[in-house]
Amino acid sequence: xxxxIARTVDEALAALAAGARPxxxxxxxxxxxxxxxxxxxxxxxxxxxxxxxxxxxxxxDGVSIGALVTHHDIEMHPLLGSSYAGLADGSALxxxxxxxxxxxxxxxxxxxxxxxxxxxxxAVMRAEVELRSxxxxxxxxxxELWTAPGKTSAAPxxxxxAVHIPAPGARSNSAYVxxxxxxAMEIAVVGAAAFVALNDDGTIAALRVGLTAVSPKIFTGxxxxxIGRSVADAAAVAAQVSSEQATPISDVRASDTYRRHxxxxxxxxxxxxxxxxxxxxxIAIPVNRAIGIGAAS
Amino acid sequence: xxxxxxxxxxxxxxxxxRADGPDKVTxxxxxxxxxxxxxxxxxxxxxxxxxHARITKLDVTAARAMPGVFAVLTADDVPDVRFGGMVQDxxxxxxxxxxxxxxxxxxVAAVDADTAQRAVDAIVFEYSPLPVVNDVVSALEPGTQxxxxxxxxxxxxxxxxxxxNDASYASIARGDVDKALAEAxxxxxxxxxxxxxxAAPIEPRAVVAQWEGNKVTxxxxxxxxxxxxxxxxxxxxxxxxxxxxxxxxxGGGFGGKCGFHYEAHIAALARVAxxxxxLVFSRREEFLxxxxxxxxxxxDFETGVKADGTITAxxxxxxxxxxxxxxxxxxxxxxxxxxxxxxxxxPNVFAEASLAYTNHQPSGSVRAPTAPQTCWALxxxxxxxxxxxxxxxxxxxxxNAVDTGVEGPSGQTYGEIGVQQCIDAATSAAGYGxxxxxxxxxxxxxxxxxxxxxxxxxxIKLDGDGSGQIITGAQECGTGAVMTLRQLAADxxxxxxxxFELVYQDTSAAPYDMGATGSQTLFNNGxxxxxxxxxxxxxxxxxxxxxxxxxxxxIVLADGMAHVAGSPDRxxxxxxxxxxAAGGELLIGHGSGPPPPAATATGSTCVGDIGMTAWRAPxxxxxxxxxxxxxxxxxxxxxxxxxxxxxxxxxxxxxxxGQVEGGVMMGIGQALTEGTQYDDQxxxxxxxxxxxxxxxxxxxxxxxxxFIEIYTPDAGPHGAKSLAEAPNxxxxxxxxxxxxxxxxxxxxxxxxxxxxxxxxxxx
Amino acid sequence: MSESFNLNVNxxxxxxxxxxxxxxxxxxxxxxxxxxxxxxxxxCECGACMVLLDGQPVNSCSYLAVQAQGRAITTIxxxxxxxxxHPLQRNILxxxxxxxxxxxxxxxxxxxxxxQRNDAPSEEEVRIGLSGNLCRCTGYTKIVAAVQRxxxxxxx
Lengths: 297, 763, 156
Known about the structure:
The complex is a heterotrimer of chains A (about 300), B (about 775) and C (about 160). By secondary structure, chain B is of the alpha+beta class. In chain B, about 25% of the residues lie in helices and about 25% in strands. Chain B has 17 helices and 30 strands. In chain B, strands 8, 9, 10, 15, 16, 17, 26 and 30 form an eight-stranded mixed sheet that branches. In chain B, strands 4-6-2-14-11-12-13 form a seven-stranded mixed sheet. In chain B, strands 1-29-28-27-18 form a five-stranded mixed sheet. In chain B, helix 9 runs parallel beside helix 16 and helix 15 packs across helix 16. Chain B starts with a strand and ends with a helix. In chain C, helix 2 crosses helix 5 (about 140-155). The longest helix of chain C has 15 residues, at about 140-155. Classes of the chains: A alpha+beta (about 300), B alpha+beta (about 775), C alpha+beta (about 160). At the B-C interface, helix 1 and helix 15 of B face helix 2, helix 3, helix 4 and helix 5 of C.
């Protein structure tokens, strides 16, 4: 086994080109190896010290989040928490406080788990992932990044360096809600994110819903037919369609029947929360602990 | 909120800081896994990894030949001894047949853990599968595969009733239950099931063994050092005085570390390897291997009631999942039958319970064994009965619960007890009866639990500088019970708790104690310490009497002084007396408080009677729990738990509150998220903390703690009963009754997971 | 393959030579020789192995030791100020928040990290901040009280 610590992105890319695998916080990699899911790669390059990948930058058309920005940073970031709130909802729910401090956005999305909490909100916001290698750089719509559980379309020598999210526009926002049996330390049984844009009269101008842990990949749907309809109607339709389109499995966490039902509930709640935010209301991060059953009493 | 309703108490309220606290908050305290010895080898086990099979080949030749491997043991390498708490149905290593996935087939000691694991992987283990007994009810049906073909040949107490897969049958009968049911105005029948669950202490167990000559010292994370010693001596055929068990700090147990676990395997490895050997469990092993987890039970209840709300009859049939071996569960049947009757005055009863062998992990004493789940089922049933006759469930309990001077369901007449006061105190703190939002409800349950008397010993010595040591056989598993012994000694001697250090958890240093089991430590060892301190007090009074020219009977020990009664200025410091004694007759006390007289029950007839139908110093509790239900998903959140406990006099208030708060939290987990899931081959599906969900700090609600302090004669020190297990009994039941109010019917399976609650709402 | 490097634990550089796949927990316990950091599970679920890495809470069971080189590691043994207990240690003891003590080191480090970034946490913030540390004994009530009391004391 070889282990090197990259000082610059170019060093990291060179190491990847030579066959190394990147490790940032290592939260998925090290636990996965200990549980026999996948052996620790024999060649590792540590990328956790690449400060150039740790910033959140506002651009002309949105925001760019460095791959090494941690979930804690996202949860606490004023701009992300207000305008890209669904992502902050997701990051605030990841694992434990320590996982959120050490775990990075890039690590989360490249792990390609269908149960990841940041995936659905990024997907409904139509985020793009910037992959870089010694051969150059490219952007991939995030839904095209994931190909199967644990698999991405990135080449082995490509490093995720940033996630770009388009600006939401006026009267638009997002939310992510997940089903959890405890108020902390959970993995999504099912989850749903929604992006909502509102017309001035409060009706839907745009609606997208993304679903977590109900299919081999996180996927989204665009609800064009709901444009001009009320939030309540759109939320009800989103719930029904989400339950219909989900193809969940039965496992130790839940049956397929229960997942199919609850993902609809999550979708409805995500749409409602996103719409309230789009209308200007502040709902604290994360929605799960701000309102409803998980709210502090 | 914490409140105490004091009736009589001799003990002053005192802020209590534990003696082992500084070790624990600074990281300097050593636990078993922290022990390291020069040359120590690492141990690993080869587990069956199949629930039921006949061994066709077990070949350890290749494993033994591997470099770095010092010992590989199987059943052929240890004495052929069957052991077990009551039924001797177990061997150290599997012989011929494996009966659950965590059964040990072989053990390896090697230079490091990786080498040991490679050797484990090199063991050739072949088998032919046997039918898996995976369902507790069908386990008892005629023709079902026997888990133990040779059950009849096993040694067991003659009073036990055993047959085939039923390892222990017990019944309690009183009056004429069939006639009473026929004459009742209403009869309510209910069926419930509870899944098994785990003690899940945060410390996974560890064992280190080292031989010197023909003596072995074993450092181990056990709750019961003397029981562990007995197990080693029995299985390795050694006398007690050549086996020394030392428990470093113990990282929790909750019953999971009761009994005898792996000490003999590691000692046997160390003897063959001629090196110290250390075993440290992974969390997965902690879930799969020990023969202690809370037993799943299937319940059928039938209760007859008059229109005025008086219960006239109770029939109950329980089938308890024993798992593959009986461990210490032989008494569960009768205990569960008692819990199926509950703390109610019922003239006509018939309760029966069977302990069914299955190919699951063995069950054993986990914090109030059989009680929380049976209380959950019974108290759900009680609410159903109350609903049937249109009576408020709290009023129904007040009407039917036992009380001072009243005869209980097994025919025991109780002395002064506080169950009625518990109901009033808990429901009042919870605001029971006040309007609530429509997604909230308060459920109420009452519970009971015995105290266990046992032989127990302690020494105390007071050295020449006046500092004391309490050398006790008692085991501290976190509850603070051993820590509180200092207070008892100090009170007897007019000294301060800080004047004493504790020497404990070493079977070669101290006399016998049953261990941190049955909530018995203060109850029994407390009396021993008081007796030991009393001997020193007598010595001090003699010394002081000589110095002060007074009669010994007139000497009072208080505030570090011995003085003449009524003349506080005629005194001498205890440190001075200790210095005097150091040059003559040393200040040494020993105690072994004789158990208080046994309780009796009259008028009931019992099959499989092991003496559990009458309880000394019984404890009572009432929990009232406010919950919120997410009707869309079935997710339940506990908002507040209001408790009241009659555990007699409370000696250590802070410690006692901590026991209630911790017991409640464990009860919330049992109610909502903690349950073992099995696949169709009897293997656990959720043997990890992500899938077996303990409650987190973020889930913990405010918990009201109230003690109904009643000085209880013929009990523990200063009129105390016990406490550690009792707070775990009624929480899940109260949560269940709150959920039932919101759902409209009970959720009939424990844990009441979100999916099960949602399922109940659909039907 | 093993690698030699310095691990800075509680302000002291420890030269270690360990396999690259060793986790930080096993190196702190086995090589550095500090056993206050506990192993309670092996998958970031219990928090008993919590240490601070440059002040941030990290489950040391799931962090490679080699990756910690050049960073400041704080374990429970580094929380005391000489012979004087940190207020968190004293308060968790005095409030009765210690029972078996196995979760206590990790709990104190999580609380320490929480108070470093938020000197006046609400009860809810304390509960979320400690949610990665499982305690089976106490029901958490007295631990939360100790952290809140410490926050008040440290603010003066």
